[in-house]
Amino acid sequence: MIDRLNSALRRVPAWLIYIVFAAWTGWEFWKALTGAGPYAVEPINVLERTYGEMALKLLVVGLLVTPLRRWFSINLMKFRRAIGVTAFFLVLAHFLVFAVLDVQSLERVWTEIIKRPYVTVGMLSFVGLIPLAMTSNNWSVRKIGAAGWRKLHKLTYPVAVFAAVHYLWLAKGFQLEPVIYTAIIVGLIAWRYWPKLGQVSRA
Asked: Which of 24, 63, 106, 118 could be a cystine partner for 169, CB 3.0 to 4.6 Å?
């Protein structure tokens, strides 16, 4: 079963992820523009949240790639770069909706970042994604070197944590979904470092 799944995945081109999510992003924008479905009330806020939630889901999927390979032998490695870059562009779309359509002023954007902690944390996540997206290409791997590139891309972990905290902080009252995302992200990151911490404690 797993072999057949991996064989099927090998036939799927990674660039298809860009096409699918570009179409989805445009479709959601069109629905917001026309006030369709959930966009009938407060379309800007709904669109901003929709883009942000999908970006967070992609960050979680990106973190799951290695555990899925190790635990279940499901190989999604060829898609990891496309997943990460797509997550960045959705965060960028999320920020642009916030800055251009919601706040509508650079001065107010800066004020929001300074005064509202959940916006500050979200901005840290966005800024952290920029060098990751810019270096998600073979040229950067050769220029930086494989070891340096891997070290740089460990920024994925704080970026994901900041994104989860942003979502958790943004929620009004207790909502289970942000808590679940936060727990999954923290758990996946802890799983990566726990064996190393154990080795240090035994040394």
From this structure: 118
